[in-house]
Amino acid sequence: MSAAPIRALHVNDAAFTTTVLLAEARRRGLPWGYLQLAVTEPSWRGFDRFVRRGARGLAWEARLALAAAHADLLHVHVASVERHTGWLPRPYVLHLHGTDARTHQYDPRLGPQVRRAIDRAAAVLYSTPDLAPHVRRDGAELLPSPIDTAALPPWGPAVRPRVVFPSRWSAVKGLDVQLAVVRHLRDCCGQDVDLVGINWGEGAPAARTAGVRLVERLPHVGFQQLLSTAHVAVGQPTGMLAVSELEALGIGVPVVAPLNPVWYNDGAPVPPVAGGLALGEAHALPPQDRETSRTPPLSPHEVDELGSSIGEIVLRTLEVPALAEEVKTRRLWVASEHGVERAVDRLVQLYERIMDSRRH
Description:
Blueprint (H helix, E strand, L loop, with lengths): L7 E4 L5 H12 L3 E4 L10 H24 L3 E5 L4 H4 L6 E5 L2 H4 L8 H10 L2 E4 L14 E2 L19 E4 L9 H15 L4 E5 L5 H7 L2 E3 L4 H9 L3 E3 L8 H9 L3 E4 L15 E2 H7 L17 H20 L4 H15 L1 H20 L1
Parallel strand pairs: 1-2, 1-3, 3-4, 4-5, 5-6, 7-8, 7-10, 8-9, 10-11, 11-12
Helix pairs in contact: 1-13, 6-11, 9-12
C-alpha cells in the first residue's frame, strides 16, 4: 500500500456528492481538491456568447491542467465531464450519478462519449442501485450516495401539518404519480395541510396548479432546513431513494416511498420508509429497459391508483405521533448505509489500489 495519502482531484459536483466527500476529507487532512465546471452566463447572447464561452472554457482547461499537475488521479463526476478531462495524463475514477448512465448512454449523439468514458476509466462507481444494469463495466461498484449525517439539522416539524415533495417535478422523477399524490391529498385535506415543493422541473407549473406551494431552489443548507420542517416527505415514485429522500430520513422525517424490490434484494437492511417494498410490490413498479433506458409507462388508472396509495399512507403517517424509536431507526440506518465516513474509507482504498497497480 502507498505510504503517502493519494492526492485526488474531484471534477464537478452532482447531488452535493463532492461537497459532502470533501468536507469529510478535510476533516481527515486528506489532500483532495475540487474543480467545479465552467458555467455559461444566461445573459450572454449571439456571437458574444460564442466568444465568451470559448474564452471561459480555455481558462477552465488551464486551471484544470494546473490542478491536475498536483494530483495523482482524477475523480470525475458524470460521464459527460470526461470529454473535458480525458486529455490529461492521469488515471481517473468515473462516478456515474444517474442521467449519464440511464439516459445519455442511449442517446445516438451522446452515447459514444459516455461509453468511451466508462471504458477508459481506471474504475467506475455508480450512486444508486437502479443504475446497475446500465453500467456495462466489469468491476463497477455501487458507492451509495454519501450523507454527512453530522451536518443535518434536527427535526423540527412546522406548526401546521406540512408535506414536502423534495424531488424536482420532472418525468424522470415520476411526475404523473407525484401529481396524483398531490390531487389525492388536496381532495382529502383541502387547505388543512401545507404541501410544499421546489420550483424546479418542467412539471412545476402543473404542481402549483394542483395545489403545491412552490419555493425557489435553495442552497444546500437551506434545502435541508426545509426538509427538517416536514411532518412527512414524499419520495420520488421511481422505486429508489435519491439524496433528498436520504437526507430527510437522516434528519428523522418519515418518508413515504415505493421501493422497487429488484433494487433492494441484496440482503442489506431495507430503507425504513413508509410503504417501502410492500408498496413497490403491490404496484409492480417497472424497472427500466436495459437497452433503451425507458421505463414502461403506467396507465392513467395505475397512476391514480399508486398516487392514491401513497397519499393514504401520507395521511395515516400525519395522524400518528412520531415515536422516538422510529426517528432513531431512520437516522441510524442512513448513518450506517450512507454515512460519508464509510464512503471516504472506500475511496481511500480504491485510490490506493489504482495507484499501486500502476506502480507494479
